[in-house]
Amino acid sequence: MALIVQKFGGSSVANAERVFNVASIITDTYKKGNNVVVVVSAQGDTTDDLIEKAKEINPNASKREMDMLLTAGEQISISLLAMAIEKLGCPVISLLGWQAGFRTNSAYGSARIHEVATDRLQKEIDGKKIVIVAGFQGLNKYDDMTTLGRGGSDTSAVAIAAALHADRCQIYTDVTGVFTADPRKVENAQKLKDITYDEMLEFATLGAQVLNNRSVEMAKKYNVELEVLSSLVREEGTIVREVANMEKMLIRGVTKDTDVARISVVGMKDIPGNAFKMFSRLAQKGINIDVILQSVGRDGTKDISFTCAKGNADDAVAILKDIFDMEGAVVSSDTTVAKVSIVGAGMQSHSGTASKMFGALYEAGININMISTSEITISVLIDKEYADKAVSAVHKAFFG
Amino acid sequence: MALIVQKFGGSSVANAERVFNVASIITDTYKKGNNVVVVVSAQGDTTDDLIEKAKEINPNASKREMDMLLTAGEQISISLLAMAIEKLGCPVISLLGWQAGFRTNSAYGSARIHEVATDRLQKEIDGKKIVIVAGFQGLNKYDDMTTLGRGGSDTSAVAIAAALHADRCQIYTDVTGVFTADPRKVENAQKLKDITYDEMLEFATLGAQVLNNRSVEMAKKYNVELEVLSSLVREEGTIVREVANMEKMLIRGVTKDTDVARISVVGMKDIPGNAFKMFSRLAQKGINIDVILQSVGRDGTKDISFTCAKGNADDAVAILKDIFDMEGAVVSSDTTVAKVSIVGAGMQSHSGTASKMFGALYEAGININMISTSEITISVLIDKEYADKAVSAVHKAFFG
Known about the structure:
- The structure is a homodimer.
- Chain A is α/β, with parallel strands linked by helices.
- The first copy, chain A, has 11 helices and 20 strands.
- In chain A, α1 packs across α3 (63-87) and α6 (197-205) packs antiparallel against α7 (213-222).
- Chain A binds chain B through residues 16, 19-20, 50, 53-54, 56-58, 60-62, 64-66, 68-69, 71-73, 75-76, 78-80, 82-84, 86-87, 93-94, 96, 99, 120, 143-145, and chain B through 16, 19-20, 50, 53-54, 56-58, 60-62, 64-66, 68-69, 71-73, 75-76, 78-80, 82-84, 86-87, 93-94, 96, 99, 120, 143-145.
């Protein structure tokens, strides 16, 4: 007998029909002899509707009261899901985040989990009940409701799986797994049987958002075996674990990220500390920097280019102009770029991966603006117009 | 400085505009230097909407899960009301039933309050915060959500007032107080300045539902001074307390109840135990009996008539036929009746009250079917068609 944690997002339980679809997945798992703990988000648009109600009354409401409001959303979905499971004839109980033992710090709206005290959970599991837990929420030391922020329900599921030493944590989504590329756009995109935590983290960072990074990091830390699978199509998903089956594939997939801007500072004086000044000021403003390229410019000056999220481009330019205008350096931004990356822990031990990627792009006639590499990724910055073409070409080179 | 508990029903906070109306009543009370604890119900139709959602999924859902679902309703209203008060610039905090210390038994759907543990409430009051408490809800010994059933928020408010020894518990409604008769129907109906708990209980029982009986009983038990007043019209309401000002008025008001059926059993054998058999069987089925009239019938038989709520009439007739058909007695019901009553602790010490009432009905040409009296009420059963006419005639006789 195994202990399975299953997580369902808000769209999976958006109406009565979907609630019963999810209920049947759960009861099927239970009837196979497993213990089942389920984490569920608020139904469909509930959270957005509640935020709208709050804004109508007070756009500057305290985060404490916002969390009090929003946690009502999962309370509705857990009880409705439990009622559906009662209808299907299985023993079930719904638990709020605090009842399931979620203790957090007091950062309302983006609380961190301190502990999952499992007494109640364990008692209900021992009583052979399917346990439905409200995701996204916990309780702080003042006994006040908190929420975990974006992707909070994924994090709740992984935290429960870690605390209960569950055999697997299944994250149900609207895709059937993790693919080598976006299957809607790339021919021959293949579903991966498995993938490592690090690869999954790179996938998320590089724009193929399936799982929330925070939940993958937690899964890695506590060695929780994840499965990404679909709530609508019943087939095996992709397993995320420490050591994936790497025999066959050097790389795991090709991703693109079009939410990217390139910022350039051309003609900086070549004096120590310029890069430090630049990136520390950007960091102070909360602007995350990705690919960085530094080159020697004309007349002993330096050029630095880097990428950041599009939404930060204007702020970044303003900050850099403030620093470098006096020096005569020219600051500019370009949002017509895209980042295309390959991800795979296998490439560490294989030479030729980068040249294979660059060759594929060359043959497709696509110019590379910038290159960056990490242990398990190679990313190139190209003209946004050619992003899909680039993904297809690179995917074909590696996956045929 | 006084401690005031204020209770607002669901229609008082049904939309953003009404939420702000209520918020301004609260902050005005606070700004006058009072400590304020507020009990609020779920907004408008929220509870009905949630029940509808549950029925769609499982009409036989467990009461435990129903209470989990329904308690989300007040969670939404307390946080929205707190946000409105934040907007008006006063310090405020919302608390769920369990956070406010409501401990109940485990009768889901109609839980009884065991205790209001006031630590948290007192801490927030001491911190000069307006405290907004979710009415209708509590927590049982398993740490599961419970609801208090019909009129639960009134009961929550009185329980908090009792536990905190509040100076007054204000129940805001859609009427400006308790009247000598329904002001929409009776000319010269007068608002009462005050009324005793017992009189208020009779008013509720007799069909002039303003306050829930359970909350009045609790107020009487713990000597909580109630005020019934309007959330829309700002004027003094009616005070409910142990000794009301009885100098002027013998009686407090005239009420009618049209949710009443008369059941008759004619021609019972005159043997001991028939009345016991009859009323114990009715009690087993949860049918509450009101006025009872027994008379000698023809040929040494007995007739018994009584009244009950209309909704129980068919059940009552079926039960009685089951008992008395064998004996040849005839069971019938009549739902074209109404009960008109006068209420007033003052009538105890005054003779002539009953004859004054009967005289007024006689002059109005209204026939009396049955009469019953208690220490502070006199009720008559009449043809429903004449109910309003009867109320007006009796009201005129006592209040001019």
